Amino acid sequence: MTTMTDPHRESFRLSMLLYDSRYRSMTIQIVALIGFLTLIGWLFNNTAQNLADLGKEPSFRFLGEAAGYDINQMLVEYNNQDTHLRAAFVGVLNTLLVAVLGCLAATIVGVLIGVLRLSNNWIVSRLMTIYVEMFRNVPVLLWIVFTMAVLIETLPAPRDFRGDDPSATMYLWDTVAFTNRGFYIPEPLFTRSLGDIHLFGDAMLRFNLSLDLIAIASTLLAGILISGLFKKRADRVQEATGLRPKTWYWRLGVVFLPTIAVLMILGLNWGHPELKGFNFQGGTYMRNSLIALWLALSLYTAAFIAEIVRGGILAISKGQTEAAAALGLRNRRIMSLVILPQALRVIIPPLISQYLNLTKNSSLAIAVGYMDLTGTLMGITANQTGRELETVLIGMLIYLTISLAISAVMNAYNNRVKLRER
Amino acid sequence: MKKSVFLGALTVAGMVAGSAAAATLDDVKARGTLNCGVSTGLPGFSSADESGHWEGFDVAVCRAVAAAVLGDPEAVEFVPTTGKTRFTALASGEIDLLARNTTWTLSRDVDLKFEFVGVNYYDGQGFLVPKELGVTSAKELDGATVCIQTGTTTELNLADFFRANNISYEPVPIETNTEARQQYIAGACDAYTTDASGLAASRATFEDPTAHVILPEIISKEPLGPLVRHGDNAWGDIARWTLNALIAAEEYGITSTNIDEMLAGTDNPEINRILGTEGNLGEMLGLDADWAVRAIKAGGNYGEIFAKNIGEDTTIGLARGLNAQWKDGGILYSMPFR
């Protein structure tokens, strides 16, 4: 006869937290977490305490006070009587400007170099190798300073353009001037301008949006969308009949003709830079700080992007090319229809970190006197108000936001091109 | 720039390390060296020679304080600071004394929690322009590109001056004096603005100093002086009275050459009190009786320091002007030693 007994129920003992392998790892993690939080708490507490001892309790009131300093490059209107917050906003826009320009240029140069490095031409591929190794093995700060020094030392000063027999001349029928203060290029002007709209009234984020720009951009966008419809139609015809109708002149026309018409209606003319007083007046002024920073950042990052692109293309097996060739596709179409779509899956994720790097590296701007966020908020504002901790915290928060935004956009794009498993 | 983030973190770290402790004098004595913040290199005021030995008008203040406190004018660790990093370095305790042509202003004194111990140079902001520009007044600078060092009162004065005169300008912010010189010489800016003494110092290093003029407008008052942290008044007193001793020494004719004779005793009780042969002023400061003797011996009295580093016989060539003793028509005036 067997007696039914309940299975032995293990009672929980405290020592099991340490000796029972089921619980041990959790115990260690909790202890580590508590230790970590204590350390953080201690750091915070100590900082607050010491700041209080110095009589410098954290305060953000300085943001509402008048900044008192001028900024040379402003994408929105600003004068020295605006607040520190407004100055920070001007700085953020300058950071974004150089980041966007830099990412675009770095991508174009990077892809070009990456593809050329795979070239069968020995000299071309070696030259590209030299480029990559040269740029990625020297700190970017040195490239920035070096580019600036080259611009300052090699280009003529505006005063060299003066006089009957000037030692420097303008280029392209006197419309472009390269000086050691920056480049002056013609600016588009509109005789029948639609004016601006003022957004956000008097708030810190107020800015003017040019209606001309909106009109041109929306026409261009509509043209591109319609051109997309032409492409779809061509695709349909090709699938049905096997013959692809010629549509390129339609597509080109639908993009450019309406845009040109809008430009004519607005009365487009070009404002040329002219030497007046100490500097050139009129035209668009690209400061040498912007050019130096933009060039150095994009050429530096391009070296990394080139390697990523090269790696991405090499990751696609040669069989793909051969298979496509066997189907009768030409080289150009093999690249655009077979290789690149697959390579992009490998390229995009590391490309995101390169964009983030470029954006964060733009904080080296003060080395050439480019007034980005670090130069305004964390530079002059911090110095004039003595609020280092607060300004650095705000600055970190803003860089974090910008970086996360870039990541979000690029991840969304990555999701579109990545391998879909059906 | 990453540097400011780093410095911000450094501030926090410095504060965490509990360096806000009050007794700077004890710290300095225990360490055996004085950590003194100076500029990254301004000829005549603070610059290192080929062998790395620091010299200059501001450096002399550091050496005098080190001599008074530690008995050795060489016991100074010089920390080069930029206009931007200097206050963080001082607030965090990285340096004990900042002697870097720093303007005494209310907000720095009160809001940044520093204590200015006196004025060692009365200065004002001016403009340096090449002669070939043909500019004779700063008011003719409408539309000019002006190089400025960031993180200084200079950029605020500049903004005020141009706003008051309703003329425009293009500011080019620059981190150090060296970069500013490079841009100015290459013609990337029309004018360079900073304290007139600094302009004279920079001009002295140019290939052809006579091709550049300092415009007559002095657009601000810039009393430059050494400073310490708030909260340690005993240390502030030592720095203040060392500076006063240098100024008073010139007033009473105590020089580095005749000081040993005077130590034997003079009939002027003020001199005797400064030199510690009478009274106990050194003891009140927490130092010994010879403190001022060592401070004066370190580089001479105020007049000797001025003449040696930035005076009219040097390449900098600054006249005493406002910085002459009050008896000679200047406004230099030491508080009485009693």
TrEMBL record, chain A:
The superkingdom listed in its UniProt entry is: Bacteria
What GO terms in the biological process aspect are recorded for it? amino acid transport
Q: Which GO terms describe its molecular function?
A: transmembrane transporter activity
Give a yes or no for keyword Transit peptide in this entry.
no
Q: Provide the primary localization.
A: membrane
Q: Where is the signal peptide?
A: none
Q: Which family, according to UniProt?
A: Belongs to the binding-protein-dependent transport system permease family. HisMQ subfamily.
Q: What is this protein called?
A: ABC transporter permease subunit
Q: Which organism is it from?
A: Maritimibacter fusiformis
UniProtKB/TrEMBL annotation, chain B:
Residues spanning the signal sequence: 1-22
**Domain Solute-binding protein family 3/N-terminal spans what residues?**
33-262
| UniProt-listed Pfam families | SBP_bac_3 (PF00497)
> Which InterPro entries does this UniProt record tie to the protein?
Bact_solute-bind_prot3, Solute-binding_3/MltF_N
Q: Which GO terms describe its biological process?
A: amino acid transport
> Is Membrane tagged as a keyword?
no
Q: Which UniProt keywords apply?
A: Signal, Transport
What SUPFAM superfamilies does this protein's entry cite?
Answer: Periplasmic binding protein-like II (SSF53850)
Q: Which family does it belong to?
A: Belongs to the bacterial solute-binding protein 3 family.
Q: What is this protein called?
A: Amino acid ABC transporter substrate-binding protein
Biological classification of the source: Bacteria, Pseudomonadati, Pseudomonadota, Alphaproteobacteria, Rhodobacterales
